[in-house]
Amino acid sequence: MKINIFTIVAHPDDEVLGCGGTLARHVKNGDSVSVLFLADGEGSRLSDTKAEHAKASAREAMARKVGDIIGIKDMFFLCLPDNKMDTVPFLDIVKQIEPYVQRVQPNIIYTHHAGDLNIDHRLTHQAVITACRPQPGSNVSTILCFETPSSTEWQPPDSNTPFCPNWFVDISSTLGIKTDALEEYAPEMRQWPHARSIQTVQALAKWRGSSIGVNAAEAFVLARHTMR
């Protein structure tokens, strides 16, 4: 049975870093996959308005190419201020997410972990949990939180909730797709041994895979699951 998958992330590239292999697996299984990006991922780096718009447009173009590689059905862009989402009233963020949840009618949602170092990631997590509170008639049965290299592991464990995965997805057959997608985000990637290098992401997938006895996996924290 086809299910609706909705990934809600702070920035373009987070969807691949966190769950790109899982999304590709969903597509292979015939599921419908959509992604919502809350911020453009560029605003905090630029001061010139024209340059900022050009960079944001280029980042969106990269995201759309990645969508073609993975097979994502729909992509939505809110363009909230990058690394400044804490300057936006929290309720406004929630209210901007809610219409897309209603539109997609997801069964499974993937989003950031609550304990990430990046402020946009943490606010995205909290806003998604709030927008998807279990009200009567909600289609959302499962919310899974992924790890984002160069954010999740950079947060000291005593500073916030540590990432302790309790849900794993075998991506042995889709790690190549995840790698191809990351190569489209080349300007956002770094050289080994940086935590956000392609080699690191591949090594992490193999480590998570070895944790469950497969060649490659992505790890998640289960935030909520409702049996229906």
List the helices and strands and how they pair.
Blueprint: E1 4-9, H1 14-28, E2 32-39, H2 49-70, E3 74-80, H3 90-104, E4 108-112, H4 119-131, E5 142-146, E6 167-170, H5 175-184, H6 198-212, E7 217-225
Parallel strand pairs: 1-2, 1-4, 2-3, 4-5
Antiparallel strand pairs: 5-7, 6-7
Helix pairs in contact: 1-5, 2-5, 3-4, 5-6
- Low-confidence region ranges: none
Average pLDDT, all residues: 94
Estimate the strand proportion.
Answer: 15-25%
Please write the string of helix (H) and strand (E) elements.
EHEHEHEHEEHHE
Helical segment tally?
Answer: 6
Q: Provide the spatial order of strands within the biggest beta sheet.
A: 3-2-1-4-5-7-6
Proper CATH architecture: 3-Layer(aba) Sandwich
Overall 3D geometry?
globular
According to CATH, the fold-level topology is Rossmann fold
Question: Percent range for helical residues?
Answer: 25-40%
C-alpha-based Rg, rounded: 16 Å
State the total count of DSSP E strands: 7
* Fourth-level CATH superfamily: LmbE-like
Task: Determine the N-to-C terminus distance.
Answer: 14 Å
Structural class computed from helices and strand pairing: alpha/beta
Number of domains in the coordinates? 1
Major β-sheet annotation: 7 strands, mixed
Return the CATH class: Alpha Beta
